[in-house]
Design brief:
The protein is an alpha/beta fold. Helix content is about 35%, strand content about 20%. The protein binds pyridoxal-5'-phosphate (PLP).
């Protein structure tokens, strides 16, 4: 790990980065300034769903740039955001959409919308889960179960309770006083170690929320938009949330988040309740419109499922030939390789061998390649990971 630095020139030292500087990308590959090639299984942390140098992204960017409108603010209507909102509600569920600029912001907005909906009836609290990650802002962090991220920044937003994933009785007890506005959960926990939440528990959550008049928020910022082989991860369980948060892959690498709120929540929102200068600007929205249309194509999702079946096979081989691998888990092209040792040195060794990986927690190597990855590229990447595991 000797190539890791925590500061680069004038940047504050909040990131630990390897020394090389990325200069170029194409598909699932990137090159550094010295021309060294890397296979990219991070995809910008599950952002570059269509890979680097995507023509879908480039063409949408160019078309919107040709209108001259990059940004107008939300003082005025523009078409791309309106069309994107219509597309998202048609794909998810009837309601309204709010656009912002990141995942953390999407969850903050979701919390505000939930309080707007339930606050007058005394519903101002939230229920989140152990192992969760919802972002670094004060509200999103309050619902995030990571002492190292939270403790230095207390006090966070008050009113968040935590339960264990799978503990239905605990959930019912936490909702029993009628003060919880919303339950928030990632259908596949990402940063917490790539842990899919079992379908029966998601269904139980839905019932517990319905019985106590509590909103159910699915944070699909990492696992949504095709990553699991379905457009939305909840489709594996057949459970529809009241609020859905999206971000990472939404605008093909440009910063964008979205909250889809069901009708009964969307109806409670009035001018001035929330806002952002940049959110849903015409440039990002035009790109997101093209990206979401592309990902939502049945043929695209079917290819993700086929590729992920191939990944099942190569992961099985890896687990059977490398004793350091204790299990593999995840869905679609969002997988965790659980190790009997810290993931950091393995990620560093793989990088030296030409494969970019990101960990998820202390002992899990996370695989979130572009959804467009070829099976042969998966084979090469998994061979490098096997070498890195010795
Ligand atoms: C599930 C989930 N929610 C929220 C976030 C926060 O998103 P952002 O980093 O864009 O604020 C992340 C980021 O990793 C995430 O994985």
């Amino acid at each position: 790990m000797s190539d890791i630095t925590t500061t680069s020139g004038a940047l504050v030292g909040v990131y630990a980065q390897p020394d090389f500087v990325l200069a170029r990308g194409e598909g699932c590959r990137v090159w550094d300034e010295d021309g060294r090639e890397y296979l990219d299984f991070t995809a910008g942390i599950a952002v570059n769903a269509l890979g680097h140098a995507s023509t879908v992204v480039a063409e949408a960017l160019e078309a919107q740039l040709s209108t001259g409108l990059v940004h107008t603010s939300n003082l005025f209507r523009t078409r791309p955001g309106e069309e994107l909102a219509e597309l998202l509600v048609s794909l998810a569920f009837p309601g309204g959409v709010f656009f912002c600029n990141s995942g953390g912001e999407a969850n903050e907005a979701a919390f505000k919308f939930a309080r707007r909906w339930g606050g007058a009836a005394g519903k101002r609290n939230f229920l989140a889960f152990h192992g969760s990650f919802h972002g670094r802002l004060f509200g999103a962090l309050a619902a995030t179960d990571r002492p190292a991220y939270r403790d230095p920044f207390e006090p966070l937003m008050p009113g968040v309770r935590f339960c264990d994933v799978g503990d239905g009785e605990g959930v019912r007890a936490a909702l029993s006083d009628g003060t919880v506005a919303a339950v928030i959960i990632e259908p596949v926990q990402g940063e917490g170690g790539v842990v899919p939440v079992r379908a029966p528990f998601l269904r139980e959550l839905r019932r517990a929320c319905d019985d106590s008049d509590t909103l159910l928020i699915f944070d699909e910022i990492q696992c949504g938009l095709g990553r699991t082989g379905e457009l939305f991860a909840w489709q594996h369980a057949g459970v529809v949330p009241d609020i859905l948060t999206l971000a990472k892959p939404l605008a093909g690498g440009l910063p964008m988040g979205a909250v889809v709120a069901c009708e009964r929540v969307a109806r409670t929102l009035c001018p001035g309740d929330h806002g952002t200068t940049f959110g849903g600007g015409p440039l990002v929205a035009a790109v997101a419109l093209a990206v979401v249309r592309h990902i939502a194509e049945p043929a695209f999702l079917s290819r993700v499922r086929t590729t992920s079946r191939h990944l099942d096979e190569v992961l099985e081989r890896l687990a059977s030939t490398r004793s350091a691998v204790t299990s593999v888990r995840g869905l679609g092209l969002m997988r965790g390789v659980v190790l009997d040792r810290p993931a950091g040195p393995v990620v560093a060794r793989a990088r030296e061998l030409g494969l970019l990986l990101v960990s998820a927690g202390a002992d899990v190597v996370r695989l979130v390649p572009p959804l467009t990855i070829e099976p042969a590229e998966l084979d090469v990447g998994l061979e490098i990971l096997a070498d890195a595991l010795g």
